[in-house]
Structure formats: C-alpha cells, structure tokens
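Hey all, quick one. A colleague (J.T.) asked me to put the pyridoxal-5'-phosphate job into the tracker so the inputs and the structure tokens live in one place instead of scattered across chat threads. No bug as far as I know, just bookkeeping. Sequence used:
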Amino acid sequence: MSKKPYQFETLALHAGQAVDATQSRGVPVYRTSSYLFKNTEHAANLFALKELGNIYTRLMNPTTDVLEQRVTQLEGGAASVALASGTSAIFYTVITLAEAGDNIVSANNLYGGTYTQFDAILPKLGIDVTFVDPKDPANFEKAINEKTRALYIETIGNPVLDYTDVKAIAEVAHRNCLPLIVDATFTTPYLLKTIELGADIVINSLTKWLGGHGAGIGGIITDAGRFDWKAGRHPLFTQPDANYHGLCWGIDLPEPLAPIAFALRVRTVPLRNLGACISPDNSWLFIQGIETLPVRMARHSENALKVAEHLKAHPKVAWVRYPGLKDDPSYPIASRDLKHGFGGMVVFGVKGGYDAAVKIIDTIDLFSHLANVGDAKSLILHPASTSHSQMTKEQQAQSGLTSDLIRLSVGMEHPDDLITALDEVLAKV
Ligand SMILES: *Cc1c(COP(=O)(O)O)cnc(C)c1O
C-alpha cells in the first residue's frame, strides 16, 4: 500500500498489510510461537533492540503486527500494542507508567471491570487511584498531587453514557505535564479521533465494536507518540530500568524509537514478562472486523438513535439517556465532537422501576441477555446486578447507576424489528 493520505474507510481495509511472497490477498495467520535467527549476531541485535524483528509470539507476530499498524493508522497514533483483552491493556498501561507509591486520577464513571481493577487491585499493589466526577474538568486539576502519573477517562462513560470532554481534560493533563489515557471503546476511531483531541494513550477493547461480532476477546493500546516522558513526572522513564539492561526509556532511545518509548516499554516490560499476549487467530478475527468498522458504526449509531427517540416518546418509559438525543445533558459537547454518529449504546428506565426492568429483560425477544457490548446483534443487560455489582450502593449512585437502569447495545437488525420487540415487552409492564 502506498503512503498516500488515504481516508478512514480505505485504511480500514488496507492499512498495515504488505502483501507477502505468497501473494495472499487476505492477511495470513502466522500460527507460530517462534522465529528463526539468521545467526548469533542477528539474535543478539534483536534482543538489544539494535534491530527490530520477530523473536517470539508472546512479544510480536506478523498477523498481530498488521492489526497493530492498522489501528495505529486509524487512531492517528505512532505505535500500538495488541493484548489478550481490553482489561489487560488497561492494566499494562497503568503499570508501564506508575509503580507503588504513585497515583492515577480517574473518572468515576468506568466500565465495571476497570472500576474494580482501579478500586480494589491497584491499591493493593501500592498504586492509589483518586476517582473524580469527569463532568467538570476542574475536578481532575484539584485531585492531582506530586505522585500523580496520569489522568484516565472513557469517551462515553458507563453506565449513563455521559460524553466526556476529552479536549478539556487533555488540557488539564498537559498543563500538569501528565499524559491523558482514554478508553475509547464506546466510540472507536471511526466516531472520534481521540488523539486529535489531545489523548496521549488510547485503549480500545477489540472485543466490542472493532471486532464487531462478539467472536473473540482482545485489547489494544495506541501510543500517540508525542508525550514528553522526560518532563519530570515519570521516574520509570528517566531512571535505569532493571527490566531492560538499565535502559532509560525516555532518554536513551535513538531518534526513530524515541517517540514510541511508551509503546516499546509496554511490549518489552509487561507484555514480555507478564505475558497477556493476543493469539494470532484472534488478531485475524479483529482485522476482519475492522474492515467493515465504518459501515457498521454508522448503522449502529443510526439504529440506536431511532431506538432512543422511540423510547423517549413511549408513555411507559421514565427516562432515556443517549448522547445523540437533542435534550440529553451530553448533547452539546458530544455533538461538537462526534460528527459521524453517537454510538450504539442506549440506557433507559421504565415506570415501575426495578421490577419492571427485570420483567423486560426476562421476556424480551430479539435482544440477547448477556454481558457484552458492541456485537452485531442487539444485547440487553441490567448493570446494577451484574457488570457493576462489585460497586457499593454509594459508588453506584455516585457514578449515576440506578437500580432501574436497562442497558441496550443496539445491533444491526432492522430498527423496526427492534422497536417492535421493545414495544411488546413495554405493553406488558
Ligand atoms: C469491554 C470493555 C473493557 C474491557 O475489555 P475486555 O476486552 O472485555 O477485557 C474495557 N473498557 C470498556 C469501555 C469496555 O466496554
């Protein structure tokens, strides 16, 4: 593929693939654990990062490399590292830039698993997380202390789908010499160019819309390639690293590698030594998914808007949140940033509260009752009793999660069929 400035749709189909000697049009799956060295000098150069090349599939794989390059180009970043899950991508991101004694300031409206990781696991490892309400960017500024190593947000937060002002929070981060980490799973690079808005590290769960078919688990970290790790707040990048020949990641790397110090440290320290690598078969699945991401995301967004508008007008519905509804609290900022649609997630509550929510979930047709989002098929869940049940009642209330909340991941069925399915159960409550 030539280096022309191709549009998103074109990159989604072609970026990162160099057709190999077999002339295979599809991206081949390289099912191998390891790669031959040409001689001992070649092997030594690979281990010393003097030469880049394949060593072992825990560290890199040619199929995974296509996936990483493709996501890098779609996000407009400098390098990506694919991992076994979105969850491991989040954990490896944090431990690449923070250690015991350090602090992360995070939005409080997170994916359930991330909340538990930050609230119950990181503190046991000595990394303290301060949760703040992301609706006011000044809350991040107030919570930063001398041990803070990064700010963390999601583009559209769980569970009430508040859109986060990425740009305003990036400004707070950069004023304080801190990187902004953004979990962009709910928007994907098709709906939002998080790096253009100031994100330094972008995380996507490949499991969701990027893969798009509920067929595998994976995650990916994209390094924007422009954060200055020497700016004074990151000893892990300015002091010799015992994990890698005493290298100072922010200082010692030669020019072509210097901007991607973060991505290189993710690969070389946690991925290499803790091992949550993605399987090449799953990388292939996610490449297939990404080929159709632009068409799917547009359709998910269209269908979700139709469902949200229908629910909004329904007499049995108490409330609806969807960032694309004109009277939604998130609409002013979401509509400034999201030019291609507002995503596939809709949440609502019915008159009749918890009992009515349970009845809807237990009897609805067409929507699959399960704990995932971003499948081509429509999904339904009650977060308070499932994905967010590890949170205390107070934590749930602070993040806006009420016991009547029903979460829909709107799929690509015909919207009339989805609306009929919802009307049928609403008639019974
Ligand atoms: C699913 C999800 C994750 C976790 O990703 P897995 O691939 O399931 O580990 C993280 N953040 C968000 C917003 C998610 O939806």
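Adding what we noticed when we looked at it: The mean pLDDT is 95. The domain at 34-289 is CATH 3.40.640.10 (Aspartate Aminotransferase; domain 2).
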